[in-house]
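Write out the 3D structure for:
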Amino acid sequence: MAVEAPRAGTTLARGAIGLREVLFQSITHMAPAVAVAFSIIVGANFAGGALPLSVVIALVACLCVAYCIGELARHLPSAGGMYTYTARGLHPSVGFLVAWGYALVEPLVAPLLYIIFGFVMAGTLNAEFGWSADLWWPWSVGAAVVVFLLGYFGIRISAGAGTILGVFEIAVFAALALWLIVKAGSDNDLSVFGTGHATVEGFEGLSGVFAASIYSILAFIGFEAAAPLAEEAKDPRRTIRQAVVWSCLLIGLFYVLTTYGATVFFGPERMAEFPASGGGNPWDGLARAVWGAGWVLAFLAVQNSAIANSNAAATAATRTWFAMGRIRLLPAMLAATHPRWKSPHVAVWAQLVVGLAASLILGFVYDPIPAFIFIATVITAVVILIYIAVALSTIVFYLRERRGDFNAFKHLVVPVVGILFFIPGWLTAMGIPVFDFIAELAPPASYTGLVVLVWMAIGVVYLNALYSTNRQRVEDTGKVFIEA
């Protein structure tokens, strides 16, 4: 398909950022500290002391897809990212449905983190000064405003902030994990990477491990967030590829280290109790136990991570909306860029509204932590589908358009392995018990299947309407809007 130049007034800041900023776009979108402190530990309710095994499963699956994304980014650098890959690899209608799914879940990542920011801040102020723990929402609003300002004033500021914030949170939690491993002493035990400690009632063995993998996969979501920055990155065919693969691998190893440290220190046989420890903030409890007053560093790292992840997620969401607005799958106004800052400022405003609405409404209806789990499960269910579609796209794209470059291991074995590792977690998230090891989740997470099916059904109706009235809009999902 021909390479096309963008229309005037819908151009992002070309070549504005390099590998470092693009790499940390993916890293901070993964929110290493928040993922360790809140996402992964939800899985302990299911996997118990086998939680590290669920992280390894997620790492293998996501690393396979990261490699696939890198192989596609070499030839298809676009702000459309995942939907461009699937449109070219499989079919424009698949690209549209991927865009539709991404347009739902990517904007939900920021409010997910606004909730955590407010919850942790209110809980800490309650424990230290007796302030009301119910006043989480003003802090969530404050986080949303900060992220809005970072996004409005252009990619250089938001990406630069992400780099600084990302380094701090990783350093603190890596140091704390190593401290826990040393303190565990003779309790260090590699058996936590097996199913022997997966003993939670109703989730024994692989059932618990795969249920936990939903939240381990959630922790990885974001390694692909570099892809939508292709039109703002220097040498995007190389930069995006490196950023996606290295962010997944490095942060995956970080997750294995931190989860292992927490498990052996807290005790594999007690890990089902871990999520509720420390007043619902277990890593705060661990930091207080081994660092004393140094717990403040862990607190700052989590809050820093929430802002960094919100910023990276909002950046990816607004670029996706920008790309969809440019080809008129969404209102064309979303493709407008600021004359000075070159940011998609209308999309940035829209992200602020969606972020505030989702975090406040769901936070008040379900309370912060259940709302977090619900949003997290919906995001994971949709993103796993997108990852599977990208893996399939790699196979087809290289067989159909780059046959001379096709490599059986790179472009067939790796994608298939990734798909196979993702399927059990997706079935669990959707509540489809086709295997004995698929266990049912509790409300509101159990509503995930209904939410996803309704959203995608609306997308199918919209897709059919577009094919009847303006087929070109769907076909445009496969275009690469970057100057040759």
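Residues 1-8 have pLDDT under 50 and may be disordered.
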